Amino acid sequence: MSKKIVVGMSGGVDSSVTAYLLQQEGYEVIGVYMKLHNLVENYHEKNIESGKKVASSLGIEYHILDLSDKFKEEVYDYFVSEYEKGNTPNPCVKCNRTIKFGALLDFTKSLGADYLATGHYAKTDGEFIYEADDKSKDQSYFLGQIKQDALKSIIFPMSKYKKEDIIKLGSTIPAIKDIAQGKESQEICFVDTVYTDILKKHHSIDNEGKALDIKGNEIGHHKGYMHYTIGKRKGFYVHGAHDPHFVKELNPKNNTIVVCKKEELYISSVQLEDLNLFIDKVNFECTIKLRYRTTKIACQVTIQDNVAKVELKEPAFGVACGQVAVFYQDEKVLGSGWITKTFSK
User: Is the pTM of this model over 0.90?
Assistant: First the structure.
C-alpha cells in the first residue's frame, strides 16, 4: 500500500512539480491549497484555478483549506504590530512555523497522511534542516523556526534540484507547462506593492518627526518612523550632510529616528529570544545569518534562560531587531532566534 502524502499546492511551478514527482515515486498524493488572506485582488482565484488544473491532470484529491482567521492572528497582526514597535518583521518565518508546518501539518494528520511536502528549496533528514543544493534558491533560513518534532513528517522534493531544472521539467508536463514560465511569487504574499500600504490601513504613518544623531542631537527631519527600516539611507533629511546617512534606530514613543554614517551602523553582537534549537547546547561556535540575503558570519553563542548572546567574529551592517537569526554548522541548521537587541563595537 502506497504512503499517503499531502502537498501544499500554491498554484506555482515548484509545488506543482513537487506533486508530480511524488506521484511518480509512488506516493498517494493529496493536494491542499491554503487560503490565507484576501488582501491582493484575484490572488486566490488564479492560484486555485492553476492548482485544480494540475490536480485534475494528475488525478489527485484537491482541498481548499481556509486558514485566513489563523493567518490574520498569527502572521498579519504580528506584521503590523512589529512595525508599530519599530521592529522589522519576518512574516514568512512566522507563517512557516504556525501555518504551513503548523496548521497545515495538523490538517495533514487529520487526513491520515504520512507526510507533508512543500516546494521549498531545502533539505531535511527528519532531525535537522539543511541548505538546498541550489544555493541561489535556498530557503533554509525561512525554516529555522519550525518545531523539530515536525521535521520527521516533512519532505522537501526540491532539495536536490536547481530552479532551472524544475522549470524545464514543468514545461514538459501538459498541466504545468502554462505556469512553468510564470513570474516568481512575491516575497510577502499579502503585500502587493510596498509594506507601507498595509500599515496605512491601520495607522496614519505620515507624521513628520525629528532625525537625531547618535548623541541625541536634532540634525534633520523625517516623514514618519514607520517609513523606515534599519540601514535605510533615503527618505529623510539631514542638515548640511555631505556624507550618506543611514537609519540606525527607530523610536516609536516620540516618533524620532536616529541616523548615522555608515561606519557607525556596524554591530558586534546581538541578543536573541524565542529560541528554536535543534541541538542541546548552551555554549557553541557556529556561523549565523542575520537576514536572508546576507552571508554567514562566524560567531560564539552563549545561552542562558532561553536568551542567546551572540558575539560576532566580524562586524555586521544594518542589523534590525525583529528579524530572525539562524545558526548554521556548514549547511546544517542548528536553530534560530529572534533579534531583540544589537550592540555596537
Answer: yes
